[in-house]
Amino acid sequence: MSSLLALSQSLADTVEQAGSSVVAVNAGTRISPSGIHWRKDIIVTSDESLQRYDEITITLGDGHTLPVTLVGHDSSTDLAVFQLQNAEIPVAKIGDATTIKVGHLVLGLARSSEGDLRAAMGAVSVVSGAWRSMSGGNIDQFIRPDISLYPGFAGGPLVDAAGYVVGMNTSGRRGTALTIPAATVNRVVDQLQAKGHISRGYLGVGMQPVRLPNNLKTALNLSAATGVIVVNVEPSGPADKAGVLLGDVLITFDNTSVSDTGDVLALLNSSDRIGKTVPVQVVRGGALVELVIVIGERPVDTNS
Fold first, then answer.
1. What is the C-alpha to C-alpha distance for residues 212 and 224, in angstroms, rounded to an integer?
2. Which three-class secondary structure state does DSSP give residue 175?
3. Residue 90 contacts by C-beta under 8 Å, 6 or more apart in sequence?
4. Residue 228 is inside which H or E element, if any?
5. Cα separation, 2 vs 199, whole angstroms
6. Which among 62, 169, 193, 257 has most CB atoms closer than 10 A?
7. What is the rounded distance in angstroms from the CA atom of residue 250 to the CA atom of residue 290?
8. How far apart are CA 278 and CA 149, in angstroms?
């Protein structure tokens, strides 16, 4: 057998084995996203690919469909988690995404709503450290595989050459593929199984970036060019109790400079923050004011 034929057969075997844990997620969309049987009776998929969370079914490799129920979802990491009931389908072999290197061959897998298995092959084009999504989600590792994310591939696995699932594929900017690494998926699944939602810190304010005038920067000896202006304060929320007012411009939070809402969300994006008392600095009426806020727990579907 030639080396090329051997490689071809090895890839096909890897697709078949890893693909046995891949399902289609039927959620009222024209193209069903894929999902991964991540743990026993636990399906993970791409949250942004779903139009609803009730009356969801999954399609298996033999074409049969099974109902699933929502455990929870987290838009900031693009993960939705569903519960199966004692289904006899293989569980994915979860690997370690930190072993992935630029140039490694990888496979993106998907399952159609009819049950057909699909695959795309490419190389890993970018690997770097932890990053934050546009909605404030903390992702343990940046992985960009050079694969075509065809319709239905979102929510499916990225599989390494050894056949291990190292993450879940999703769409990045301009349709490029990104992979949510296994460590992030595991962390989100753990929290959703425990509480049904992701615990994050909460201030109870509406915010937007604002540019600081040069004369104000000079007068207050500020180095930052922008801050975050408070446009809404929730009554009796953590910020309200701390004395934050409409029009205050937040410039530091827990001794860290903030220049846009994403900075604030990132600093709140941990259950460890809840209940912690932190110092903040705001510009109010041209003067620098120092406050302390006891961080609350963010209600479900509330941003800040």
1. 8
2. helix
3. 20, 21, 37
4. strand 226-233
5. 54
6. 169
7. 10
8. 42
Q: Give me the torsion for CA of 107, 161, 45, 63, rounded to 10°.
A: 70
* Bridge partners, residue 111, by sequence: 117
Say which residues have a Cβ less than 8 Å from residue 134's Cβ, sequence separation at least 6. Answer: 262
The answer to whether the CB of 111 falls within 8 A of the CB of 103 is no
Strand partners, 108: 120, 158
Q: Checking DSSP bridges between strand 157-159 and strand 105-111, what pairing results, if any? A: antiparallel
- Calculate the CA 56 to chain-centre distance: 21
Cα–chain-centroid distance for residue 99? 20
In angstroms, the CA 105 to CA 37 distance is 23
How many CB atoms are located within 10 Å of the residue 228 CB?
24
Each residue's pLDDT expressed in tens, for the chain with a length of 304 residues: 588 898 899 999 999 999 999 999 999 888 899 999 999 999 999 999 998 999 999 999 999 999 999 999 999 899 999 999 988 899 999 999 999 999 999 999 999 999 999 999 999 999 999 998 877 788 999 999 999 889 999 999 999 999 999 999 998 877 789 999 999 999 999 999 998 888 888 999 999 999 999 888 888 888 888 999 999 999 999 999 999 999 999 999 999 999 988 888 888 877 778 999 999 999 999 999 999 999 998 876 555 6
